[in-house]
């Protein structure tokens, strides 16, 4: 497994979750060259970009999560994070981490937000 996402769960609206994505097979010197991202796919909808962070720590967010979600990375630990605050029912989806180059995807973690 190249990417392992975790941290999903069931939370009430207004709550918080922190997703993690580890890259157990990567070596530090390679991981730091990756651009990383979080995507999500809700039932019946296309997969969409939630947030991304480049190897230079430039970040980008979907308009729907700006001000609520924060993407970060720890190259030394080969970890990618997504801090999600003030969650809404429309954030319910399976969340995936992805890396470039290589277009490598993690297995997904379910986030469910109840109203």
Summed up:
It is built from one helix and eleven strands.
Protein model, in words:
With 115 residues, this protein is mostly beta strands. It is 3% helix and 50% strand. The chain is built from 1 helix and 11 strands; from the N terminus they run E-E-E-H-E-E-E-E-E-E-E-E. Strands 2, 4, 5, 6, 9, 10 and 11 form a 7-stranded mixed sheet that branches. A hairpin with a 6-residue loop joins strand 4 and strand 5. The N and C termini lie far apart (34 Å). The mean pLDDT is 96.
Q: How confident overall, as mean pLDDT?
A: 96
What class do helices, strands and sheet pairing give?
mainly beta
| Unreliably modeled segments | none
What is the count of β-strands? 11
- Write the element-wise H/E pattern from the N-terminal end onward: EEEHEEEEEEEE
Shape: globular
């Amino acid at each position: 497994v190249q990417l392992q996402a975790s941290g999903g769960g069931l939370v009430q609206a207004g709550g918080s979750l922190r997703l993690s994505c580890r890259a157990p097979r990567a070596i530090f010197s390679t991981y730091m060259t990756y651009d990383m991202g979080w995507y999500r796919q809700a039932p019946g909808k296309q997969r969409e970009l939630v947030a991304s962070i480049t190897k230079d720590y430039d970040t980008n967010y979907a308009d729907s999560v700006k001000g609520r979600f924060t993407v970060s990375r720890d190259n030394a630990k080969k970890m990618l994070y997504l801090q999600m605050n003030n969650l809404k029912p429309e954030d319910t989806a399976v969340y995936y981490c992805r890396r470039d180059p290589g277009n490598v995807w993690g297995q997904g973690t379910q986030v469910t937000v109840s109203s």
